[in-house]
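I'll show a sample.
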Amino acid sequence: MAALEFTRRYAMAHRLLATQSPKCAIPHGHNEYVTVKLDPLVPFRFGEANSAAPFETVKRRWRQWIDEHVDHALHLGEADPLIAYFREHEPALMKQIMTFQGDPTTEALAACFFLKLSAFVADEALPFAVREVRVEETPTNTVVIARENFDPAACGLRAGAWPWRADMSINDF
C-alpha cells in the first residue's frame, strides 16, 4: 500500500505554564515542521489515474490551514492569563491565538493536528486515513502521534473543540 507523505514548515510561539519550567514559561518561538502520512483506504492498483486522489487535492486544505491560520500563531493554554490581556487590549489578534486544554506542548499540538487533519479528510470524503503526524519542534526534538498509539475517542479532548471540526479554526473564541 502506497502512503502519501507531505511536510509543511511554519513559525509559532508558545509558553508552558503547568510544566513549571522557567525557560518555557516565557513566550518563545520555534520554526517547526509538520509531516503527515496518509494511508489509502484501498490498495494501489494500476489503472488510468494510478492514484487514489491527486496529491494537490489531498493536501490543499491542510496546507491552507497551516499557512493561513497556524503559521505565526501564538499557542496558549485556555487558562493562560495572556488570553484575558488579548481579549481586553488587542481583541483583533484573538484569531491568531491557538488554544489548548492545558499546556500547548508539542505533544498536544501533534494530537490536535492529527484530529484536524482527520476532520479535513472525512469532510472532503478523501479515500485516506491519517496514519501519522510528526511535529519537529527543533532539530533535536520531535513528537510523533500515530494511529496505532493514539485513540482520538479516549484522548480527553472536549467534544466539539476546534481540533474536531473541519473548519479553519485554531481556537473556540
